[in-house]
């Protein structure tokens, strides 16, 4: 009566999809074949599937074939959907009649199929979405679930071979293993959640700061470089070029900061016009620029820096009697997966400071920071 009432309350949503239909048809076929094999004296596995159980499974599968996925699924329904495959697996493997009754192999397999098909109806809900997601967290969740299922199966099978005097001790050992495994999973998920929350906060802050422009030159700030590294660092190779204008400190000391700003605007404008789609130019501090490049090697990064230095060398400073403008640059490749440009910037600045006064090289190449 309860099953009939629940079926009548359902709202038809066309028929089930082909894969789900196949699962329900296999359930019906298995129940029919099991009944025929019992009638011919053929038994397989422990226990026997009762006639009422087989008829119930056939009616349940037939009813499910008439409906598609649920239009609304709460957290409680999604959680309850996991109980059926769990009872099917644990009930047969552990052979505990007081908890699950005399479960046969056919009943266990049928319950498992029904449970999987039932879970599929809730798979797109928030709680079960990682089970079907192709993202990295989804793969991690599926790996943890598979490891847990293997652990449960090994414990259930091993319990069948434990001598009677050691049953109590083995139960304590199983409890300890389960507790340690659960503790490891909790700590792992907590670590991932904390890292994700921290990364989200940093990303929001970087997005806000990257929208701000330098009022003097109109250039992007260092926050844009941090967002660049956080975006492309985990997925591809990237590097940076720290660019300094030779003599700009003397210009600021002699003619004031306005002259240094004007010289910086002149250089940044020339570099901005020569940028490629995979490059980003931003202002590092008052006297230096930062060029971010992705999908490159250290040699390509050095060649690109030399090309830009040669481009700026063709400029003339009108306030310094048309003198040439010279640049010093340090190219650094970041480590794969590094989402913070700070180590690379420190390495580049250290390379520029440690360059010998007589060194004629305008571009210094550095290994990974």
UniProtKB/TrEMBL annotation:
Signal peptide boundaries: none
UniProt key word Cell membrane: no
TM stretches of this protein: 21-38, 50-67, 74-93, 99-120, 140-161, 167-191
PROSITE patterns linked: GGDEF (PS50887)
Pfam family of the protein (one): GGDEF
SUPFAM superfamilies per record: Nucleotide cyclase
Keywords in alphabetical order: Membrane, Transmembrane, Transmembrane helix
Cross-referenced SMART domains: GGDEF
Domain (GGDEF) ranges: 236-368
The name this protein goes by in its record: GGDEF domain-containing protein
Organism expressing this protein natively: Alloyangia mangrovi
């Amino acid at each position: 009566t309860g099953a009939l009432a629940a079926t009548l309350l359902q709202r038809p949503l066309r028929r089930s999809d082909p894969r789900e239909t196949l699962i329900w048809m296999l359930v019906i076929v298995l129940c029919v074949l099991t009944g025929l094999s019992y009638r011919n004296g053929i038994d397989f596995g422990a226990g026997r599937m009762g006639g009422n159980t087989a008829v119930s499974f056939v009616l349940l599968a037939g009813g499910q074939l008439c409906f598609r996925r649920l239009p609304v699924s709460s957290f409680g329904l999604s959680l309850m959907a996991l109980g059926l495959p769990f009872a099917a697996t644990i009930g047969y493997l552990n052979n505990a009649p007081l908890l699950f009754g005399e479960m046969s192999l056919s009943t266990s397999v049928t319950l498992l199929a029904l449970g999987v098909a039932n879970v599929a109806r809730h798979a797109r809900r928030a709680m079960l979405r990682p089970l079907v997601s192709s993202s990295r967290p989804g793969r991690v969740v599926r790996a943890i679930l598979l490891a847990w299922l293997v652990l449960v199966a090994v414990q259930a099978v091993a319990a069948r071979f434990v001598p009677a005097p050691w049953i109590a001790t083995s139960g304590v050992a199983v409890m300890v293993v389960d507790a340690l495994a659960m503790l490891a999973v909790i700590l792992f998920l907590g670590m991932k959640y904390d890292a994700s929350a921290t990364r989200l906060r940093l990303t929001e802050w970087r997005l806000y700061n990257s929208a701000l422009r330098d009022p003097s030159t109109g250039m992007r700030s260092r926050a844009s470089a941090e967002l660049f590294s956080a975006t492309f660092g985990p997925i591809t190779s990237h590097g940076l070029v720290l660019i300094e204008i030779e003599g700009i400190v003397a210009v600021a000391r002699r003619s004031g900061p306005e002259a240094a700003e004007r010289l910086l605007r002149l250089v940044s404008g020339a570099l901005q016009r020569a940028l490629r789609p995979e490059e980003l130019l931003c202002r590092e501090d008052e006297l230096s620029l930062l060029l971010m490049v992705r999908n490159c090697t250290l040699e390509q990064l050095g060649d690109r820096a030399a090309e830009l230095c040669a481009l700026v060398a063709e400029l003339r400073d009108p306030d310094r009697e048309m003198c040439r403008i010279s640049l010093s640059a340090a190219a650094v490749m970041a480590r794969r997966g590094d989402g913070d440009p700070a180590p690379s910037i420190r390495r580049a600045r250290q390379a520029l400071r440690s360059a010998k006064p007589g060194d004629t090289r305008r571009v210094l190449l550095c290994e990974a920071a």
